[in-house]
Specification:
heterodimer; A: about 240 residues; alpha/beta; 6-stranded parallel beta sheet; 5 helices; B: about 250 residues; Rossmann fold; 6-stranded mixed beta sheet
Chain lengths: ~240, ~250
């Protein structure tokens, strides 16, 4: 049986394009579940797949001392949603590096729920959005630190770049902490291209359009620096950026 | 080569340059010295075309072309290079990619063919080595995590790669230790000392001029050139200070 169809009243679906979602709901509603056993490690690349509407729902469990690192690119032409619920047992380590790249009237969103259950877990989420036209890019990131999950170290860094006036970025880090010895950092910014960087690039001979493209590329590409096999995601991101810049 | 005549410029409607006249012929190095706030960096930015730096009167031409009418990237393609006082960081883009795209963009606008990746890397490595910079640093994002001195060295590596006809160097000597100063001075001489090239060297201090001897020294004060002289003027300024020398 399929899960009930979501509504905008549910916080995690507030910015979703439900009209676009409806026809594919049956197909994608069931989350994929993954477990990384104690001491194990996992590195995943989530690239856009074919189709105007793309939904990826994942539930992941990291057992004691397990590590997971996810690199994700969300760049659907119409509606893209990456949804991840992850629990971290003692000493588990989780990193997410994700981008929303949107153009036209598209909506792309990344929704995470990171649950620190055990002591000494570490999570780091870095999300970058590049949006033009009337595109919407969202990050809703909830971090829960359970009672007893002391020495949790959770970090969220969210930045969006709006290339047109009509584009919208939603950044919503959310913390729910029931332990008293934890570190939970979060930062969010929405901006435009840096004028001094543009001038520097142009003074070296890049025409304004190329300078702009290069700076936007830099804004996103830094995400994949720590990936072992980054070629595919780099190429997919460049492809998506070509449509945006 | 570079002809500046009665140049007036404002930044945020505030007048900074109040009639600068300066002529740098090919084959010469000219130094501009002056106290803080005299307009030295503004002059450099105006010549390179930084947005927000408005020319309100006068002219600047480069090899007979009206510089002020050109976009920053057109000035670069014409052979003008600005060495920044504060080189800018660009995360996510390696120096190699940044410089290759910049150089090829210049070459295309001059009707020249692109350099291949291999050719470019050969040139970049050679220039880094000549400036005493570890070529591995060129794989890192532009200026990110570079010390003040490394950034200035990297500016000179860029200049070596671009091989411009004319360089405006804005306080390239600031933040350098003695060894770096020597390396940068030698770099300027090697890259730019040539009968068909010119340099405008902006500096507070005489010490860089020990390594790059200027043909002429100009003193800028309150947006105007108040004195001209030969290399000896730099020594006089160093001895007596700007207030005395300009009086």
């Amino acid at each position: 049986m399929t899960a009930p169809f979501p509504t905008h009243k549910q916080e995690a679906w507030r910015y979703a394009d439900l009209d676009a979602l409806k026809p594919v709901w049956e197909q994608f509603a069931e989350p994929v579940t993954l477990t990384v056993g104690a001491g194990g490690s996992l590195e995943e690349m989530w690239l856009p797949v074919a189709g105007d509407v793309q939904l990826r729902r994942v539930q992941m469990a990291l057992e004691d001392g397990a590590r997971a690192r996810i690199f994700a690119l969300n760049a659907a032409q119409h509606y893209g949603r990456i949804e991840l619920e992850i629990s971290l047992a003692q000493g588990a380590d989780f990193e997410l590096f994700a981008a929303n790249i949107g153009t036209g009237l598209s909506t792309n969103e990344i929704v995470t729920n990171v649950k620190h259950v055990g002591v000494g877990g570490r999570s780091r989420q870095v999300v970058r959005s590049v949006l033009n036209g009337k595109a919407v890019g969202s990050y809703l990131g909830k971090v829960e630190v359970a009672r007893g999950a002391q020495q949790t170290d959770a970090e969220q860094s969210v930045k969006a770049m709006l290339l047109d006036r009509g584009a919208t970025a939603n950044c919503k880090p959310e913390l729910e902490i029931f332990a008293d010895d934890v570190k939970c950092a979060h930062g969010a910014s929405v901006g435009e291209l840096d004028a001094m960087q543009l001038f520097y690039a142009e003074s070296r001979g890049l025409d304004p359009a190329s300078a702009r493209a290069l700076l936007v590329e830099g804004f996103v590409m830094g995400l994949w620096d720590s990936a072992e096999q980054a070629d595919a995601i780099r190429e997919a991101a460049r492809e998506a950026l070509r449509r945006v810049v | 080569m570079l002809d500046i005549s009665n140049l007036h410029a404002t930044v945020a409607d505030k007048p900074i340059l109040n009639g600068v006249t300066l002529h740098v012929p090919a084959g010469q190095v000219h130094a501009i010295m002056g106290p803080n706030g005299s307009g030295k960096s503004t002059l450099a930015y105006v010549l390179a075309g930084r947005p927000g730096y408005e020319v309100t009167q006068g002219s600047a031409s480069f090899e007979g072309r009206d510089l002020i009418a050109m976009e920053p990237h057109e000035r670069a393609a014409a052979g003008l290079f600005l060495g920044f006082q504060y080189p800018v960081e660009i995360p996510g883009i390696s120096y190699l990619q940044f410089l290759r795209e910049s150089l090829n963009s210049q070459r295309r606008s001059r009707g020249e063919a692109d350099l291949s990746g291999a050719e470019f890397i050969r040139v970049a490595r050679a220039q880094a080595e000549l400036l005493g910079m570890d070529a591995e640093m060129l794989k890192r994002p532009v200026n990110v995590g570079f010390s003040g001195g490394e950034k200035k060295r990297a500016e000179m590596v860029q200049m070596g790669i671009m091989n411009p006809k004319f360089a405006v160097l804005d306080e390239t000597d600031s933040g350098l230790d003695i060894d770096a100063l020597k390396a940068v001075g030698a770099g300027i001489n090697r890259i730019m000392r040539s009968p068909d090239k010119g340099v405008l060297l902006i500096t507070h201090y005489q010490r860089l001029l020990d390594y790059v001897e200027p043909d002429r020294v100009h003193v800028l004060q309150a947006g105007q050139i108040v004195r001209h002289g030969g290399p000896e003027l730099a020594h006089e300024l160093e001895r007596e200070g700007y207030a005395e020398a300009a009086a």
